[in-house]
């Protein structure tokens, strides 16, 4: 028996996938869970306007516990170096060991750092948590995995582990710590971008740092979106603003201009104000992440984030490919966005030009040359 591409030999998990067709996607977009995701993104966005990284204020005990939990995940990664895979520019198999280890210790981490969470809720939290680091089978990462981390945060809010007073720290401390660890994983294990188009031209992997990063800058009196083309501004201000940090990161691993390898970011830089950029990012997130079947077919539903009522809809004829993805035979044209030709890791190509096996975290390392976009 197969259900959504999962064989019966795999362990039963508390979360499940339900979105198979365009009609299902439309039902999701009208659901309370979709509203919860959008409301959380917008509320967190509002909370950080004008706030720099490191200026979120005193962290609550819950925030400190979550940060310590993330530190342990990073230590797991540091203890599991990549295996010799020099013949390939694709994902390093050692990532599977990392993923398995995080999955193994996940219940203990939640018990240790989130002791107020009931035993009933921990399995749901655990699945969002270990799935947010990437896909074990494909050794890739994209906006769907990033969404799992957001769902984990939403569940912690629903369980009153973190509250509105923590909003600034949720983005500027917890989420940014997650991004730092993800950059380490991406560079260490050469995670491939999920899907053949990356994240629609923003970044090979992420979306939310640009959304919330533009929110940070929304009322800045001096910096303008075109400032991303000024190396001196990036050098001075990237330590304070997520958006600029992400631009500097992209520049650290790719040559040529944004016009060539990130044309959408280049186009966005022509917008006059960061407030307009931020407004557009929110609309884009709703359309290009929460509104795309290749992403939302993998959305995980449970008791805390329940699935929409789909009982009145027909699933239609579906099939499962080798990646465990669902394809509706009546809908042509979108599947390649989901499981097109694998995209080599940019880190792998950069490392091939040096003697350093792992390159590029949030800052470029000396001796590592950027690579042409390919």
Automatic annotation (TrEMBL):
One Pfam family here: PTPA
Predominant location category: cytoplasm
Gene Ontology BP terms: mitotic spindle organization
Domain of life: Eukaryota
InterPro entries with a match to the protein in the record: Phstyr_phstse_ac (IPR004327), PTPA_C_lid (IPR043170), PTPA_sf (IPR037218)
EC primary class: isomerase
Catalytic activity from the UniProt record: [protein]-peptidylproline (omega=180) = [protein]-peptidylproline (omega=0)
GO-annotated cellular components: cytoplasm; nucleus; protein phosphatase type 2A complex
Membrane-spanning residues: none
Cellular compartment(s): Cytoplasm
The EC number(s) this enzyme carries: 5.2.1.8
An example Gene Ontology molecular-function term: protein tyrosine phosphatase activator activity
Similarity comment text for this entry: Belongs to the PTPA-type PPIase family.
Described purpose of this protein according to its UniProt entry: PPIases accelerate the folding of proteins. It catalyzes the cis-trans isomerization of proline imidic peptide bonds in oligopeptides. Acts as a regulatory subunit for PP2A-like phosphatases modulating their activity or substrate specificity, probably by inducing a conformational change in the catalytic subunit, a direct target of the PPIase. Can reactivate inactive phosphatase PP2A-phosphatase methylesterase complexes (PP2Ai) in presence of ATP and Mg(2+) by dissociating the inactive form from the complex.
Protein name: Serine/threonine-protein phosphatase 2A activator
Organism of this sequence: Filobasidium floriforme
Lineage of source species: Eukaryota, Fungi, Dikarya, Basidiomycota, Agaricomycotina
